[in-house]
Amino acid sequence: MMESTKHTWWKEAVVYQIYPKSFMDSDGDGIGDIRGIIGRLDYLKELGIDVIWLSPVYQSPNADNGYDISDYRAIQKEFGSMEDFDELLDKAHKMGIKIVMDLVVNHTSDEHPWFVESRKSKDSPYRDYYIWKEGKAGGPPNNWGASFGGSAWEYDESTEMYYLHSFHTKQPDLNWENEDARKAVYDMMRWWCDKGIDGFRMDVISMISKDQNFPDAQVHGGLYGNLGEFTMNGPRVHEFLKEMNREVLSRYDIMTVGETAGVTIEEAKRYAGETEEELNMVFQFEHVCLGDGKLGKWNDSRVDLRELKAVMSKWQTELSGTAWNSLYLGNHDQPRSVSRFGDDRPEYREISAKMLGLCLHFMQGTPYIYQGEELGMTNPYFDRLEDYRDVECINAYHELTEAGLVSQKDMLRYIQLRSRDNARTPMQWDGGENGGFTRGIPWIGINPNYSQINAKKELKDPHSVFHFYRKLIQLRKENKIMVYGTYQLLSPEDDSIYAYERAYQGKRIRVLCNFTDRILPCEWKTCEEGVVLIRNCENTDKTLLPYEAVAFWV
Ligand code: GLC
């Protein structure tokens, strides 16, 4: 395995993701906002992160919580104004924190002026900004299903044709084959860069180039064909990203991360290859899709540690020296990491949250912390469908139960474990009403455990998950080996312990993580006093206590 040679600021950074709607509400309307974020910059500074990735704050009718944008150059009313945004950018910069914006350009909202014009007539100059097709045999052009349920094609009466929407009906896909549409996107991106933002997280960017034959796709377990086959890593995606790089990215000192569903190692080396001139890094999906079954993510399987290690290790070793990894266990689309990969029972929550943080932050790549992960926040386990807000799980519940593919009871359990709303309950700031998130009524229920799990309590406790994350971030700044060192897995067959080493300039760090609630003998634990970088419990025996994790020099 090669040592990565080129050193850059974004490889050395730690990123913190903010989902604005659920972060901090400053005006009492129950919805988080930009002034709320400004008021919490000190908290982020104390944690020590370098970059904020801001999920969309643009004007949007909110069919998909801001991932359906109707004006790329305006701020969502509920979130504040452009003046608020400028103030956030300015204050963050003064504190040494960079801001990366979400870029959602696979699709717009159907309320975006481009689409409003496009749907009016076949001769509109904006017609080809979107993907319009004639129906077939009285139905849609093909059998593709949308990510949020139903067909991926919506019939539009005004011109009697169908438009493609890979996600919600209110999220029509842009037609990247159209040069004017691409130019308009680049123009908008330059506008934000000229404002001084520090980069882009690119939403489903692997899906912008579609197979122009639009063939029927295979049906797996649901009702529709899986469009991913013909939309992910499509024929012209790299050509488009090289063009975007030339037209925009290469002109600024910014960082870019592509959300690349369906990405393989080979593809990642193209998207994020050091010499490819496309993006800096990608989010791969393999580890968060482990255990997916015939109904996709809707199941209750636990992740098998051997599989998790195999996937993580493959990405660690295969990208090393040629491309760059993003390291994440959670985000706004995933359940809480401690509930999914750790153990959120009260006696193990803290220690397993720290174990997961340690396991991830010692790997090669840029670590991403999702808001509340640094507190060990858990899934809320709401037990009524009415408590969920996300279109994805609500539509899936109806579609799958009504088709008789799963019982209502099972589906609710799957939602409790896998719904995106698990990550979207409000940040737990203190033990007061609504966890200090809002003085109004929160748009989604707060996790009832906020009186035990909250930032105020953790800031005061030097042994909290928060302070553990703070130390992890600090260690990464002090030890280049954590950023650039090579990675080697020690324990491929062990189904309970994740053990690996990093090596750099003649030095080595060993990382040991017990992923179980059992005490395990551990022959790799050779640390004497003085060599430990960080550990989540005191135990000098050659054993690992439940969820024990330690990193030490060897
Ligand atoms: C990405 C976003 C997700 C959104 C989807 C459609 O996967 O992370 O939240 O729903 O794209 O924009």
Structural account:
The longest helix is centred in the middle third of the chain and has 17 residues, at 179-195. The protein has an eight-stranded parallel sheet. Strands 16-17-18-22-20 form a five-stranded antiparallel sheet. A three-stranded antiparallel sheet has the order 6-9-8, with no helix packed on it. The protein has 554 residues and is an alpha/beta fold. It folds into three domains: 9-106 and 174-472, Glycosidases (TIM Barrel), CATH 3.20.20.80; 113-164, Oligo-1,6-glucosidase, domain 2; 485-553, Immunoglobulin-like. The protein is globular, with a radius of gyration of 23 Å. The protein has 17 helices and 22 strands. Helices cover 29% and strands 16% of the residues. It has helices at residues 9-12, 34-39, 41-47, 82-94, 113-120, 179-195, 228-231, 237-247, 265-271, 305-319, 337-340, 346-361, 391-402, 408-418, 455-460, 465-478, 480-484, and strands at 15-18, 51-54, 58-59, 71-75, 98-103, 132-133, 144-145, 153-156, 161-164, 199-202, 225-226, 255-259, 281-283, 326-327, 366-370, 486-489, 497-504, 507-514, 520-521, 532-535, 543-544, 549-553. It binds alpha-D-glucopyranose (GLC). Alpha-D-glucopyranose binds at residues 64, 67, 104, 167, 203-204, 259, 332-333.
Shape: globular
The fourth-level CATH homologous superfamily of the largest domain is Glycosidases
Mean pLDDT: 97
CATH architecture of the largest domain: Alpha-Beta Barrel
What is the rounded distance between the termini? 19 Å
Strand content: 15-25%
Question: Could you say what the CATH topology of the largest domain is called?
Answer: TIM Barrel
Q: What structural category characterises the helix and strand content? A: alpha/beta
CA gyration radius, whole angstroms: 23 Å
Helix content: 25-40%
